[in-house]
C-alpha cells in the first residue's frame, strides 16, 4: 500500500510549478504579451490535470489506509501517522494552493480588465459618432470633422 505522503510530495512539486506559471502569466498579462499567454494555457491545464490525478490517488491511498477517501481524511491520517514531515508538506500544499487561487483570481481580474478595455476600443472604432467626433482624414489629407452629411427629405 502506497502512503498518501508519496502523492502529497508530488502534489507539492506540482503546485509550486503551477504558482510559477501563474506568476509568469501575470507578467504577460500586464505586458499584454498574448503570444506568451497562449503558450502558458496548455501548460496550466496540464498541471491542473496532473494535480487532480494525484489528489485522486492520494484519496485512494487514504481510503486504503482506513480513512475518509477525500480531503477530510487528511487531518485524521496525519494525527494517526504522527509524521511531522507529512504534516509540514500538507500545510505547505494548502498554503501554496491558497496562493495559487489568489493569483488565479487576480489574473482573472486582469483578463477582464483587458477585455473590457479592448471592447471599449472596438466599440469606439465601430461607432459612427465616435469616428465623426474624432475626425477622419479625407482624400486631401485634411481632417474632415462631421463625416458625410445625412440629409433626409420629408415630403
Automatic annotation (TrEMBL):
<dbReference type="Pfam" id="PF05130">
    <property type="entry name" value="FlgN"/>
</dbReference>
<keyword id="KW-0966">Cell projection</keyword>
<protein>
    <submittedName>
        <fullName>Flagellar protein FlgN</fullName>
    </submittedName>
</protein>
<dbReference type="InterPro" id="IPR036679">
    <property type="entry name" value="FlgN-like_sf"/>
</dbReference>
<keyword id="KW-0282">Flagellum</keyword>
<keyword id="KW-0969">Cilium</keyword>
<keyword id="KW-1005">Bacterial flagellum biogenesis</keyword>
<comment type="similarity">
    <text>Belongs to the FlgN family.</text>
</comment>
<comment type="function">
    <text>Required for the efficient initiation of filament assembly.</text>
</comment>
<dbReference type="InterPro" id="IPR007809">
    <property type="entry name" value="FlgN-like"/>
</dbReference>
<dbReference type="GO" id="GO:0044780">
    <property type="term" value="P:bacterial-type flagellum assembly"/>
</dbReference>
